[in-house]
């Protein structure tokens, strides 16, 4: 009788930490989105920066912009040497722009649904303007155990998809899929 009782306790002792870890990991994306909201609302760029995988995010945004430029240029532009040179210059300029804009300040403006913001600085928004709620009314979806998306809309109603990926037990913003 005592063997059965102690065996049950050991199973519970081993199962509880696994269950707690699983609960924490599954709640992680929601906690990360809540951290985004707090950091943007408090205009805390340092807190926002902790939640972002900047190299992955910059790489993804550069690829999206390059793809859009090539598609909008058309096949005739790509085929000519002068057009290809122009696309190369435009791609380099877009890459530099992404590097400058993918900052806690720029991302805070995007999360609030603003396309343009009035001043650049350490804060996330201008004190003269009323700031919309960051990541307002998102829809959430797990795509896998290590990929989570939060979809919100910009001021024009177009969807912006924020992709969070899991690194160990922590979730970070690694991609933003811009509206078409």
Model description:
With 180 residues, this protein is an alpha+beta fold. 56% of the residues lie in helices and 17% in strands. It has 5 helices and 4 strands. A hairpin with a 2-residue loop joins strand 3 and strand 4. Helix 3 runs antiparallel to helix 4. It starts with a helix and ends with a strand. About 9% of the residues have low confidence.
Key terms for this structure?
56% helix
Strand content: 15-25%
The largest sheet, given as strand count, sense and whether it forms a barrel, is: 4 strands, antiparallel
Separation of the first and last Cα atoms: 67 Å
Specify the helix fraction band: 55-70%
Number of beta strands? 4
Q: How many DSSP H or I helices?
A: 5
Structural class by sheet pairing and helices = alpha+beta
Strand order of the largest sheet: 1-2-3-4
Element-level helix/strand string = HHHHHEEEE
Q: Unreliable runs, pLDDT <50, ≥5 residues?
A: 115-131
Large-scale geometry = elongated
Topology:
Blueprint: H1 2-41, H2 45-49, H3 54-79, H4 81-101, H5 104-111, E1 139-144, E2 147-153, E3 159-167, E4 170-177
Antiparallel strand pairs: 1-2, 2-3, 3-4
């Amino acid at each position: 009788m005592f063997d059965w009782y102690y065996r049950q306790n050991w199973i519970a002792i081993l199962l509880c930490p696994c269950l707690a870890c699983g609960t924490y990991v599954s709640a992680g994306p929601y906690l990360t989105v809540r951290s985004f909201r707090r950091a943007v609302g408090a205009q805390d760029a340092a807190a926002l920066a902790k939640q972002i995988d900047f190299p992955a995010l910059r790489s993804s945004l550069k690829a999206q912009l390059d793809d859009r430029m090539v598609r909008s240029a058309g096949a005739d532009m790509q085929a000519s040497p002068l057009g290809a040179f122009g696309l190369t210059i435009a791609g380099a300029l877009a890459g530099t722009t992404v590097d400058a804009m993918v900052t806690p300040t720029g991302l805070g403006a995007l999360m609030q649904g603003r396309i343009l913001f009035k001043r650049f600085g350490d804060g996330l928004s201008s004190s003269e303007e009323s700031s919309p709620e960051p990541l307002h009314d998102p829809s959430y979806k797990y795509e896998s155990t290590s990929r989570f998306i939060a979809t919100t809309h910009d001021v024009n109603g177009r969807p912006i998809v924020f992709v969070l990926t899991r690194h160990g037990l922590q979730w970070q913003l690694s991609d933003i899929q811009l509206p078409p």
